[in-house]
# Entry
Amino acid sequence: MGLINRTWLNIWKGKPPGLALLLINLLAAFAMVLPLIYVLSRAAAAPWEKWQILFRSRVPILMWNTISLAVIVALFTTILGVILAWLIEHTDLPWKKYMRLLFTLPLVFPPYIGALTYIIIFGKRGVMYSLVGSSIIDVFSFFSVAFILSMFTFPYTYLTVSASLRKISGNYEEAGRSCGASYSSIFKRVMLPLVKPAILSSSMIILFYIIADFGAVSMLRYTTFTSSIYFQMVGKLDRSGASILSTLLIAFGFFVLALKAKLLKNNSFYQNPKSNRVMNPLKIGRFKPLAWLFILFVLFFSLVLPLTTLLFWSVKAIHQGVVGIKTLYYIKNSLIISVGVAFITMALSLPIAYMKYRRPSKITTVLNSFCHLGSIVPGILLALGIVFITNKYLPWLVGSQAILIIGHSMRFLSRNIQSAESSMALISPALDETAFSLGKRFGTVLYKVVLPTVSPGVLSGGAMVLVSSLKELPMTLMLRPPGFDTLSVRLWLSASDGFYINAAPSGLFIVLASIIPLYYLIKKEKVNENGIS
Amino acid sequence: MKLFYPKITLVLVIIMLSLVLVFAGCITTKKPVVSGTEEAKELTIYSGRQEKFIIPMVERFEQQTGIKVNLISGKATEYAHRIVEEGKNTQADVFLSNDAGILEYLRLENALTPINKDALEVVPENYRAKDGTWVGVTVRCRVFIYNKDLIKAEDVPKSIFDIVDPKYQGQFTINRAGNESMVTYFASIRSIIGPEKTLELLKGIMANKPLILQSHTDVRRAVGSGEVKFGFVNNYHYKTQLLEEGMNNVGVIFPDQGEGEIGTFSNVSGAAITRYSKHPKNALSLIQFLLQPEQQKLNDETPIIPGIEGIEYDEYKAADTYLSNVGPLWEETIEMMEEAGYSD
# Structure
């Protein structure tokens, strides 16, 4: 007994967590892993012939479709993001403040809504066709799909790379110059290596984003693993096919993660923030018009075109009477779910973030990484696992709104924890330990002392979760109770029947709501900026 | 002596009231399932058919009978799953399907209850289950819809077996394999020509790289708008497309009509009463209601009852298949479709 006690204390370095704290963390982690384990076990239980059939017919095509698309988009967004970040941060182009904002804005478009606007304009019989008699481009071709997805994901690269470009001290450039290096060689040999980690990690984000995307690729009639899993799931009585494809997707995800770890190894750079100086902007002189052309091109296709399309067709739809009382009902349904999800993730993020910073141990690390699974596992896999489990063990949950809320919470918990953690990292342990020493109970300390100080982080996390849940498509489609239509579901249903215009108002509403978390994001950027200077 | 004790009276009144409520509760919650003469005036429908077709009927039914209908619309496969999984606790009294194959699946899972024979007699025998567990409500047959601007009627394939011809590569569109009626269609072909030839047909179709779309609505609109030359839909989709202004220069071909050919395949949309229905009587009245000529006329699709006045029936040679042969072939057909790469 004494030995067990001692080991237990050793694991926690003498500070074991309270029972309640440990239980909450255990339960959250357990709930996150269970669906995945279940998907894997279903695949393992599938007959061997089923695997063979899939490997012969579908897997090679899906593999090629998924990987080629993800790689091209990652490549394209990297080029776009790096050029933009460099133009805005390191050259003498004016209006930097506004451009930083503008190139963050495309994030308000979930790619499937972006895809919708492109189909409305460039679809086979879209606006372009009725104006000039030809749709100009084939919107459903591979390169269109890659282009459209890039237009709505490149801000991830842009933001990461520009943040790291801003941190490069002017000293390096000067050192290079004093050794007689040209700008291009400084760029290649000094700056590129410094932003390489940023480029790599943002391409990973994009890679995972594309692999997990369901709405945009299916609207653009492109089949990847994720969309195939969805259609296998809803269209088949036998769901082992969906679980086999899911298993392959999980394996692929691990491969990519391992690759990232290998690439980022020996790639850390440390800068001394005290000697940090702002770099002199490079005068690009006669290349200015070219730079402007590039900036306007990206802005037009990622912001102006989709936004005006959405506005215009929403007005048209309202005129045609497509928007009625029912729309309010869809908004209400969307809000019921997303507000519920935001509350759950906010409530859970606090004890999980607290545990990470105040009770660090190997156990904590494992539990914590499980809680973050939602950020890398495609929603469709979680949904598949949840469907399996609830059908088998919790049939009374099937067809209730609760299951939708639980599913979304699992998917977006990670986002809220991340933002709670970043606030938590800033407060001193002395604060809550003082409260403990005054004899306060754990719950009181957590919610009376810790919560008020981390509340900005928790709340901004909650806002981000709220909007993510509003946008979420595949999980909502799979878990919703019969007849329970939300904005995103309605948008999807109209689009899959080819009534793209009817989908515009729902899209506009989601886009407008997405401005809220962006506000937090930009505010956070500013705080970081001030912290540096 | 005091005759009126306010407190005691109050207590007695409360007791009596609660007793009344309890009894009332018993009457409404304990519905006579087997023998009862009284059934609560409510009915839950799981429907796999498009909501807009069903709502007008349901509203009429509610008006005529006073039965409150709880209509839940979505994908047929999903609800079939749900009915099986919910077992005895199922909410569903009636299952409305867009396809016979999925009704057959429920029959084989023993999830349905036979419908009163008298109600079924109006329906031709090949459009209902052998054991009377499901019945067709409308007929829909598989036809080619083509865009008259892009292809001449004589160039449109006349048989499903013609579309494997390489000259049609990339020129036609079909629905996702996830749609129940596609599986039933190929299962019925399988019942006529056997597994090898069916697999060959499927592989041929896929080799011709058809445009695979999300729904039949999407298919007919793709043809109507001229995105592709022809597509494979149900006959009523053709009629709906004629109503879409600017996209309605379309024609229709009933395939496999020639001498010695298999004929055009007819499927049904159908109805069934679940095995554990809590309101079987209401369920039966709904089915009878749907089979009445007035409601049959309301359908966009072809009525299942022959010879209704004022209805133009399509004249065609129907494929010689019993829909109730399709059920046992369902799984095998899905496997063949997967084998051919036509799987989601």
Q: What stands out?
A: Chain A touches chain B through 31 residues (CB under 8 Å). DSSP finds 25 helices and no strands in chain A.
